[in-house]
């Protein structure tokens, strides 16, 4: 592996809290167990991002694709929570010596808005459910 890849892999593990612990297994048969483990690992644990390593892999791939294709402009993460995705985007640009892009971030510091139940019935049901309301507090984060 190249030093850049080693650095970014180490950062992914740091941001996701997986240096010394495994990520919750999304493919396990017990959905309630996954939700419990996700909450314990990402929400209540030391992870700086709710994005698992595979999503950070995808984010890295997308950024590299944008750079290789010469797509102009800055990038933004919306709904940053603890900022792990933003930190990672900055790290990718720094590792690749990209200095002509700004990484923006936005967060409302309030709970997720209630989805329109007619347009998004599954999301509205999940939003109103016990897990989102009491376990995840609708992903509210303090300043």
How would you briefly describe this protein structure?
This protein is mainly alpha-helical and 143 residues long. The chain is built from 6 helices and 2 strands. It has a single domain, classed as Rossmann fold, CATH 3.40.50.
How does this model look, in words?
The protein has 143 residues and is mainly alpha-helical. It has a single domain, classed as Rossmann fold (3-Layer(aba) Sandwich). Helices cover 48% and strands 6% of the residues. It is built from 6 helices and 2 strands; from the N terminus they run H-H-H-E-H-E-H-H. It has helices at 3-15, 31-43, 53-68, 84-95, 121-128, 130-135; strands at residues 75-78, 103-106. Strands 1-2 form a two-stranded parallel ribbon. The termini are far apart.
What labels would you give this structure?
143 residues; mainly alpha; 6% strand; two-stranded parallel ribbon; globular; Rossmann fold
Identify low-pLDDT runs: none
Describe the main β-sheet briefly: 2 strands, parallel
Number of strands: 2
Proper CATH architecture? 3-Layer(aba) Sandwich
| Radius of gyration over C-alpha positions, nearest whole angstrom | 17 Å
How do the SSEs run, as a string of H and E? Answer: HHHEHEHH
In CATH, what is the homologous superfamily? Vaccinia Virus protein VP39
Count the domains. 1
User: What is the overall shape?
Assistant: globular
